[in-house]
């Protein structure tokens, strides 16, 4: 995948302590009744997600990223990256991209970086100005 850095939202570092989880969700932005992308800041759509794992969790340690519609679970391994399309080639949301962060088992933690690749340039300074004004 080759993409301009201008198409990447600010990176998000996530850390889950034992038993913490992130329930089933999509990374794409939903459309409002007015046809605008609801949680989008600049009209951008999150075309792809790249999830980079910052720690390895052993067998039975939990912390998997699970895709229920695909019946796939991926265990975190330091340095590995998981990439998926949030929308189809036509730009329509891909419901099969539904995923969840399963909880790490007791005594374990999960560390990862979310990288959201947008369908258009994402201007950080404009984003910060809008957030501050809101």
UniProtKB/TrEMBL annotation:
GO terms, molecular function: metal ion binding; procollagen-proline 4-dioxygenase activity
Keyword list, A-Z: Iron, Metal-binding
Pfam families, per database record: 2OG-FeII_Oxy_3
Gene3D superfamilies linked to this entry: q2cbj1_9rhob like domain
GO CC terms in record: endoplasmic reticulum
Tagged with keyword Translocase: no
Signal peptide: none
Organism domain of life: Eukaryota
InterPro entries in UniProt: Oxoglu/Fe-dep_dioxygenase_dom, P4HA-like, Pro_4_hyd_alph_FE2OG_OXY
Record domain Fe2OG dioxygenase: where: 7-119
Keyword Transcription in record: no
Protein name, per record: Prolyl 4-alpha subunit
Organism for this UniProt entry: Chrysochromulina tobinii
